[in-house]
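Task 17 of the worksheet. Students: predict the tertiary structure of the chain below and write it out as structure tokens. Keep your answer in the requested format; marks are given for formatting as well as content.
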Amino acid sequence: MSFLATAGWLIILVAGMKAGHAILVPLLLSMFISIICAGPMMWLESKRVPSGVALLLVMLGVSGLGVAMVAMIGTSVDDFSLALPRYQVRLEQELAAFFGWLQNQGLAISTPDLLDHVNPGAAMELGANMLSGLGGIFTNSFLILMTVIFMLMESSAFRKKVQLIWEGNDRSSGAFGQFAHDVQHLLAIKTAVSIGTGLVVGIWVAVLGVDFPVLWGLLAFLLNYIPNLGSILAGAPAVLLGFIQFGIGRALLVAAGYVVVNIVFGNVIEPKLMGQRLGLSTLTVFLSLVFWGWVWGPVGMILSVPLTMVVKIALESREDTRWIALLLASDAAVKEAVLAVDSPPEPKTL
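Model answer:
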């Protein structure tokens, strides 16, 4: 009975999230932005900057970045959408020529049937659709900005409330503090790494002469929140466009740049800064991408991994749910947890 009741509550919860996406998604974005902004605000306050002035400076920075991103998304997506039919026709011509070459090599391939069942421009449309979906969310930018301001104004009071609620219960208070620190640490590092990824990708495709480098940089920045799969989704449209414009050689160079950026940022820099403990398995990443994308569309896909990692951090903070967090973890995170359990504590020195 308890299992059926839990399953029923989960179904109701998911249905409610799906029905209320118009309100929940902006609020969720506001929460993530406020968590990221809390670090710079506290840093300014530690430098003896008054709280009101620190909040104003942080909000000016966030507003400037938001306006610039909305302007770039709108301009790039509009221009790319106008050019997309021409690119799709050119891509089909290039693929038809390639399939014809394969037929000349003795491979039995029906080019018209293959092109009817395979839409080569779907990857290019996906990038534009994801950015368009995110741009639609930012039509509620005033609501998002005001929510972020009120959340930051309440941040210090909220910490005091938590201390009062768990006064005398050091274990619960410490677990919540660790949870809040891990979430802030995760989102700050993920955002910084994503910004670096987007800048490097945008510069690389611009140097190679691929059209719309700002669009591909923005897409790489947003999809970097999805490890492993995000780099593939972000790179496929740019590689196809490089193939359309310059041929297979330039397309391979574009793909090589994405691979190098993913290895350096995704496999070296990010794990070093974030730690292996917060890693998710590839299966968990894929399932969270499908689930949150189904619930909240393109924005849900972009937020899928941060949402899942927040859930994982929350599960790790309690002894009775830590086993669920281990099921979601990557192999490296499991090995690190095993080593932490097996390694004996260091002897205390007098």
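Marker's comment: The CA atoms of residues 127 and 189 lie 24 Å apart. The chain has 13 helices and no strands.
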